[in-house]
Amino acid sequence: MAITEARKSGSERGSTARYEDVACPFCGLLCDDLKIERKGDQLKVLNTDCVRAVSGFERNLPASSPMVRGKKVGLDEAVEAAAALVRKSKLPLYGGLTTDVEGMRAVMQLADRTGGVVDHVLSEVQYRNLKVLQTNGWITSTLTEVRNRADLIIMVGGDVQKFNPRFYERVVSPPDSMFDLKPVRRTVVFLGKAPDLSLLKGPRVGEIVVLDCDLPRLPELLSALRARLRGAKVHELDIPGITLADVEALAERCKAAKYGVFAWAPPGLDVPHADIIVQQVAEITKDLTAITRFAGLPLGGNEGVVTGAAVCTWLSGSPPRVSFASGQPDYDPYLYSISRMLASGEGDLLIWLASFTPDLLPPKTKLPIILLGTPAVKPAQTPEVFIPVGTPGVDHRGLLVRCDSVVSLPLKDLGRAELPVAADVLASIESAL
Amino acid sequence: MLTKLTGGKVYDPAHKVSGEIRDIYVRDGKMVPPEPNARADQTYDVKGKIVMAGAIDPHTHIGGGKVTIARMMLTEDHYGTEVPRTELTRSGSGDAVPSTLLAGYRYAEMGYTAGFEPAMLPANARQAHMELADTPMLDKGAFAMLGSDDFFLRQLAAKQEFERIKDYVAWTMHAAQAIAVKVVNPGGISDFKFNQRKLDLDEEHIYYHITPRDIIVTLARALQELGVVHPLHVHGCNLGVPGNVETTLATIRAAEGLPLHLTHIQFHSYGTEGDRHFSSGAPRIHELLNKNPNISIDVGQVMFGQTCTASGDSMRQFAISKNASPKKSVIMDIECDAGCGVVPMRYRDKSYVNALQWCIGLETFLLMEDPWRIFLTTDHPNGAPFYTYPHLIRLLMDKGFRDDMLQKINPDAAAMSIVGSLTREYSLDEIAIMTRAGPARSLGLKNIGHLGTGACADITVYRDDANRETMFATPELVFKNGELVVRDGKVIKVVNGATHVARPAYDKSIETSLKHYFEDYHTMRMGNFAVSDDEIENNGKGALIVEPGRARAS
After folding, report:
1. CB A144 to CB B127 under 8 A?
2. Does domain A127-298 have CATH number 3.40.228.10?
């Protein structure tokens, strides 16, 4: 297959242009109201100061070239070298996988063909949700539904600002909503670490309640809440700073809500066995739905992790942590963790794909690495093969699935740089096998 | 290139061909008139074999968010069901909710060449099309779900001009790249978001104060006047509720002559008679159906075993989530647009209720006089996975086999049903109508589902086996666009099918109000909501077929 340097875009690269309704690929909310201006290879975000959008779009793009063992080579030569490594490999590990739908499709096809293992760099975090989905299931909602409907929003694990900076602006406190909510102002409850409350402002924000506790205490707090909601007695609660009366008051708020929402970002629940927190939330939601309406709202979803899970699932039957080594998709969320495999000396080649932020680097390993990365990526060890790739939604078009797993958005080609598309590179490697 | 199939017994009901022995000619992927003197590049001797167009499944949940949620949740369905890759085909897993690639291969290996996803939420249309794009072998299409979306409900509640409602329906079909429109628990999915648990045909939505009857009639009339060929595809109120036969009868009457398609009607044919207050309403429904030629149906046959129900009907799915087996479920409120519910289900032949559901489905098939108005479905995977179709066909074609099976089910259920007394056996002609010509005509598919000149050469050749299950499970040859893609029930060539859409005309000014609506209330812009042609075509990996409709009437 002939590889093009980048898929054709409608606009001349390097010139000046302005784009509207741009979807942002740098967090799971995929806000699509951005206005962006391009001058040369510099982008400027014109209508938001969201740190993720600004740092993502405006990041300087260093000069880059495909490299084999640290030496600059042409793209075809790099693809050939990558194909030689893949051909030789008995158990290639396809990791990172911060990419869009088309990139993920190409990974799946290559992994199936080469008997590889597929795992996303944020899988461990995402399994805080997936384990609950796979054991008990849940009741959830989506961004637009919550924006228009919720009268009580309970943020579990504290602040989501770090992961989804515009959540408060776009979902918690929008200027308008559809259903003449009364009261117009929403109650927002924080369970866990108190956030910077100055971030939470706007015409729709009413009472703010903080039940401040250490994250590892959340399962206890939620269990007490669940017990109270079910009418069971709770004799004592040993969580510093939180009294039984606080829990009682929260239970009453939940029962009085017309449409209550528990929102959390899985990466914000950074404690061992965090799935227990999500499970408690899911079960409380089910209990409350017997009397009123309640729903969960999974946030986070950055770096294409929700997209990766969706594409891997529809193509193989299961989300990442799938091995094709036996010729068929074997699913095991423990065994096929690439970090576990590397630690125990499994696998003989690491193919790492990092097309959004440059921070998610391949882990330290003795294995040879093929790195398909945005040019800003600076790995700790020199990969055998490095191929710079474009960022979907910046350097080429793409598709991503949002954090709520329902909506997907088209990403625009903003004409920043002539960089190969990861899906094309992977397809070329496959063709060269 | 000219391909010739000689000596087969041809069933092509669209052209009133019923078991005639004739030669079939294919040139460059299309059916052509006989060219007896031309030298064929390829000739297949199909003497003594049965020849039909490729089969069409008009209602199968194979693509879209809820199916992938089901796949992700139901790990049990993906252990022990893995299928290895071959030189030709990729690997996959799953029975009730197979991976997309497996679904495509399996359908083709059963002689199917097209399948339609019936519950595409417009907010999830992009993903539905991505999954359908990854479903090889089949032509496909999807029905846009309307009727619990707030834009429409606001239009209706505000008594907006009917032409604007039509514009919105047509705009949605374009934006979602749909071939038809489906309504699911009309208004009920929205009502559930307001903590309501039931919405009968003439009950008012608690917020909008409109009724499911208003919604059904408005949408049905809109589609008729827009010239959309497939009538409103109705998943009615009260799915699965004993006594819902009354709702179904009232829905048929509510149509007042407007065309409607009542989908998976088996789940809507329940009476409350007998000791267990659960009985068949199928005979009463059929009495009315036989008098109302404006109504078509598909069955949603229940078959015994493990499956997973997946539906837009969040209200009813929440209600049945307590019966989930294994015990887990997902219920979602979605984007002021729709909802979904995924509940795994195991239908047991020894269960009175499940066995009676099985009987009611069979009664529905056997009582329907006009095969052009009934389509063979299990509402995959809701009643059963689609690979049970050959077994179902045998049940319909073979009274002796049916009676044997009847002996195995819960005896009280068998006694409550008239199935044992029904002697009808479906003919091959009727099977060809139900699985090819009927769905094609109903959906407005011009060039598939028949073998007339100009049709796509999607052809299935079966061995004429007295065991109809064996016969329909492993066709000898399947051609897709004239290419041989399946031999002896195994894929021998992987191809991609096209996406069929309908594009009724609309006044672009509707986009002004939609643009404001999206900006004021949504978390997505109108322009990004719509799925573009480019996305479907995806650099030549997919193709669009715009089916002709009738002119818009006002």
Report:
1. no
2. yes
